[in-house]
Amino acid sequence: MKEFKRVTLQDVAKEAKVSYASVSAVLNGKDGKSIRVAQKTKELILECAARLGYVPNMAARKLKNGTNSLIAVFTYEQIFPVESENEYYRFFVGIQETAEKLGYDILILNNRPTEENSSRIVLADGAVMMGVNRDDKGIERLVKANYPLVFVGRREVSDVSTHWVTFDYQKVIAQMVDHLNDLCSARTLVYVESQEQEREPRKDKRRFLLEAAQSLGLEVLIVQADERNMLSLEAFGLIEQCKVVVFDRLFLLEPFERLLERKGLKLGSDIWGAVLEDDWMGSHEHWTRWSNQRLELGSLAVEYLSHLLQKETLEQLETLTPLYLVISESSAFPK
Amino acid sequence: MKEFKRVTLQDVAKEAKVSYASVSAVLNGKDGKSIRVAQKTKELILECAARLGYVPNMAARKLKNGTNSLIAVFTYEQIFPVESENEYYRFFVGIQETAEKLGYDILILNNRPTEENSSRIVLADGAVMMGVNRDDKGIERLVKANYPLVFVGRREVSDVSTHWVTFDYQKVIAQMVDHLNDLCSARTLVYVESQEQEREPRKDKRRFLLEAAQSLGLEVLIVQADERNMLSLEAFGLIEQCKVVVFDRLFLLEPFERLLERKGLKLGSDIWGAVLEDDWMGSHEHWTRWSNQRLELGSLAVEYLSHLLQKETLEQLETLTPLYLVISESSAFPK
DNA sequence: CTGAAAGCGCTTACAG
DNA sequence: CTGAAAGCGCTTACAG
């Protein structure tokens, strides 16, 4: 078997009998700056490069330049999920489209959780990270070293400031609470939370909900679903009394609807409800929620990263993607 | 905004007040070979590296070593398809599992068709390519330069030998034809082909079918579906006469079944049929086909690549993944 | 046991 | 207009 012998600039230079500086200049279209090459030499060089099958060595280029127009997309979730609607799909589409538009290629590092991961990420000029990170020392180290890393969704790393873009939860949650308040005269609403690990987005959503309710003089009762995402009888009793319920996660809805059915209650007339997510699973259209802007957020993440990479000022860069309230049967106005 | 200042070996060496050769040795566990470092120095170095947040520069390492234990997975298809069952999913799982087992990380290059792509691939030590390649000059160049590239599915590149793994179509097709022959007394079968571009796997399947039929003294009539994957009336008439039909692609089956229904014919009793694919879409269980061994083939591709990379002999390496005939209603024996 | 030095392939400021 | 040279960060054979 023949070896993979890389054709280098040197080889091309020898073949064309010129210095390799000229070859580099021609092949990178840098002709005209500090280096100038005669038209004939140029053609000769291009011909030789093609004939020998020259493939530039990205590793060397990256080492010398510090950049390679590659951005890493990183997630700790499974990348190729079997589920029809991958939670990250729309983010990724936005990332991909925008990266292409801005002239970046994309490098997807498939998760193999190791300390080494960080050095792999660093092959790229910067990275976009989707999903909930485990408490990873490698990532933390990168952030602390000021590696250009943009999180999709707000993330904190102790002691250092992080770069992130996220949804404008505050505004849409205020609208949602307004709407629920208009809908019925109850002075109390029940907020049902899942048992998921406490992360920044979840904290944010709860805070915004409480603030919005307070500004309208509404009381909020917070209850937790159990590990099977079910409500206790007491919790359900509260909801029956208050008539208005807000869930933090989509997957809490189905168990709740089963419960409603068993009690003979009807969503949207006996009980009003909403959920603090978009309908990314495509199967909760009858719930009041917000619009799916995941593509837009992915896109924004890349724009933000691009600013970082070009050392442009971030002052006037927006970091929030607006969300739109989608009012549906679960909290529709009575006809 | 602070710059991303990379912490280098030099920085660590300065901090620990040792030469950077020692740092390199310690950090790579190479202590003991041509370089030996005292236990105390070792601990000091590790402590300094951790404190400064040293992240090895993969680009430099790759440039020096020529390897970085990264393999690229490359495909021209959309990588994050919305469809529930991605055609490449099972291949990818096999690739991923085996790469992990053999100590490789995986780098997914998202397709942006450019000449530059080839230099991006070459960041990795080798590559596995899934799916039908367009006639890409970059890929051709890599193959000609002996870059370690394994195709999933047989692929030819003019003038040079390629590395590929594929399914053992020959054996399973022979079994399938045997089965169809046992099933009914017809001496002729109809082979329906799609209008897809002619590629190696398709040529192979056709050839194996013809050979298998010939060895049993069966005649094969080849017909083409139209651009909407429909059969002409004449073609359908032939099938009605011969009673046995084989399709090359899954997507031809639904239009055919609609036609059958319209004619009041029943698959598996009036007409027998089979398809030269596995049921990767999960919705053709009632068709005689072969088993889905995509995971196994992805796995094999990585094993093959690993042999290439370690310059082991390829002599005794199997390149075929066996397929198993799955007999189903479309050609079941009458009860 | 430790350090100085060469070299991987490239880019670019600089000298001729 | 063209070439020689330094240097990006790393590894490793070799000298001390």
UniProtKB/TrEMBL annotation, chains A, B:
The keyword Transcription applies. Residues 7-65 form the HTH lacI-type domain. CDD domains: HTH_LacI. It comes from the Bacteria. The keyword NADP does not apply. GO terms for molecular function: DNA-binding transcription factor activity; transcription cis-regulatory region binding. Keywords: DNA-binding, Repressor, Transcription, Transcription regulation. This is Transcriptional regulator, LacI family. It comes from Sphaerochaeta globosa (strain ATCC BAA-1886 / DSM 22777 / Buddy).
